[in-house]
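Input sequence (212 aa), recorded before submission:
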Amino acid sequence: MLGVFLFFSTFRNNFGILKEVMIEKEIVNYKDIVNRIRPELDKVISFLERELAKIRTGRASPSLVEDIVVECFGQKFPLKQLAAISTPEPKQILIQPWDRSYIEPITSALSRAGLGALPIVDKDLIRISLPPLSEEYRKNLIKIISEKKEEARKTIRRWRQAAWDEIQEGFREGKIREDDKFRAKDELQELVDEYNQKIEEIGERKKREIEI
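Predicted structure, token format:
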């Protein structure tokens, strides 16, 4: 009886240890890690779209000026917080400040913004008439688009590396199986390819706008 008691005591103790090891090495679903970075990649795309919207094309757009920083009464504001912005004509931006005291600081900010056109004050309004884009200016804009695309791709790669590092760590800790590790690597690359394609499409669309 003593032997049986010792056997079950040993079994119970070993089972407890085994249970602790199993809990400690709880299997991690690699798809959770892959899917976790998708919202971050969406943010990269949204940021790129906002940045490219600020680049002048052949047509006027409020996005060209709405985020220009205006120094007013010792504080800094985006233009869209100080005025209504519209485009009554394809190559004209019309700015209507909420208060006449904003006119001077707004025109100063617009003059420094590098729009290729100077603001003209017309009573309580500010008008900007955009001239046609020169060939040299178009080439410079296309270069800027390429640079912003590359910045977005670099950020995508950083998120991919962060996810891959987490997957590698899970594999080393026994929480991710080897076959799942390689599946994760393939799915991460597919995700990166998907978002790189989005970056390319956004950039090409902006280039076409410039060429109009």
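Checked by second reader. The chain has two domains: 27-51+135-211, 59-129.
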